[in-house]
């Protein structure tokens, strides 16, 4: 196949083609324009369906935009945002989102770190272990949450059965969905289950790049495995730690599937009888497509966007400090 | 005993039996919900309600599966076909457009290349889920709301895909190869097709697997678009099955298990590639 052969420079002049003119025009076109044609599908599609809606969302947020009343359009100014400030549902959802976010992110990343440390050894069948811990990442949340919903059921649920074995709640089984704290724990468990393996793999890949003499030096100084993990491994994989913190912030604050499917009636998007576990993403869905108030929903997603930016920023600073300066 | 770790980097430490016990527990924790999904999908109503819970599969899988497929309120078979269509189209399109753009960014010289690449990287950080309200309005203007088209369109390309392909092509395809093909008179499209595509097959496999999984599991956007229509995706159909006052769990879980099987098959076939893709920094979009 001549296309793939490397040729010495002396062979460069091509054999005279029949149609020199068309050819050279074609090649000029190919050099100048083809690159833009190659990248244009991405920019066009991503522009229309990715970037534009995000900007347009800002416009929708300052307008009245109701699906059930198309005539009610026009400038709303900051009305939607003002309404947000005094909306109890919003603050409740914000609290729930943060509660679940903290209960899921912190254990998730710590356990992932420990698992990555286990995987970062000479193991028999190491591909097997890695593929195994990825099973949750591939399992649809909609499907796995249904299993967890049964696991955390009040009557006949496996979680309550375990609790009863160790002597808790034999008379009155715990209704996991009824209270904030228990519903948050149940939902955080599902989130942790899904993402621990994924994060462990990210940490593992960073750990494998750490040169071994660093550990040798530490061992000479008398640092045991646990100290090595905290004083060497964690600081040295710090960029990846920051990265996973940002990722789980973005993901955690947009949590939607787990609280939806944990509900006894998923389609209601209410997050429990008294909104005990309604998250902001869920509330946006409810306001937009159940209450049909798109303008207000857009304002909410802008607020969420800002919150994510702030929290991600704070988290990055904290992670840098913890990982770097010790 | 306390000295065993001296002069050893963790990579050199042989896993002790404790490591294996720890990893086995992790694996049990990972696999149990999926296994239990299967157990319930094979059980009778009594077995589901039993205390202590039964952890062995029963023999009712075909009965339960049959019930899911013959339900009139939920078009489960059609929803599975829709999921296959949506995920396949999104995967093929992402692979084609992202590798094409990745090739241009990696190997071709054009004005504004670096600036445009910066734009791609910046859009990586944008959580586009926050634009869904406006996206819904855009789809409305196009007249696509409630159709599969509206579900597919936003997934046709991904910034991550372009970036991933650019990185891979820059390393995997030698400049000389591209140059010599051009000197032979090949047009860029031909270079892409005959040289670049065969060289990046591993990267295509990784991106393809990850994209397919993400598209298959997507829930929020398909729910907004297809809720209450006669042609949902399987995830929307599952949430339908789980709604209502009296939910029959063995039936819902049979559906959930059936909708999970394609991904388990993918994990068995391409597990190695998926692991490698994630460890090379493959990131959910």
Task: Please summarize what this structure is.
With 326 residues, chain A is an all-alpha fold. Helix content of chain A is 68%, strand content 2%. In chain A, helix 4 (88-119) packs parallel to helix 9, helix 4 (88-119) runs antiparallel to helix 12 and helix 12 (238-253) packs antiparallel against helix 15 (294-324).
Descriptive notes:
Chain A has 326 residues and is mostly helical. Chain A folds into two domains: 17-61, no CATH class; 84-325, Orthogonal Bundle (MetI-like fold), CATH 1.10.3720. Helix content of chain A is 68%, strand content 2%. Chain A has helices at 20-32, 34-61, 79-85, 88-119, 126-133, 135-138, 141-151, 158-165, 180-207, 212-220, 225-236, 238-253, 257-262, 280-289, 294-324; strands spanning 63-65, 73-75. A two-stranded antiparallel sheet of chain A has the order 1-2. In chain A, α2 (34-61) crosses α15, α4 (88-119) packs parallel to α9 (180-207) and α9 (180-207) runs antiparallel to α12 (238-253). Mean pLDDT of chain A is 86; it is low at 1-8. Chain B has one domain (17-284): Orthogonal Bundle (MetI-like fold). In chain B, 69% of the residues lie in helices and 0% in strands. The model of chain B is unreliable at 1-7 (pLDDT under 50). The chains are: A mainly alpha (326), B mainly alpha (285). Chains A and B meet through α1, α2, α4, α5 and α6 of A and α1, α4, α5, α6 and α9 of B.
H-E order of chain A: HHEEHHHHHHHHHHHHH
CATH topology description of chain B: MetI-like fold
Number of discrete domains of chain A: 2
Q: How many angstroms separate the termini of chain B?
A: 46 Å
Note the total helix count of chain B. 14
On the 0 to 100 scale, the average pLDDT of chain B is 88
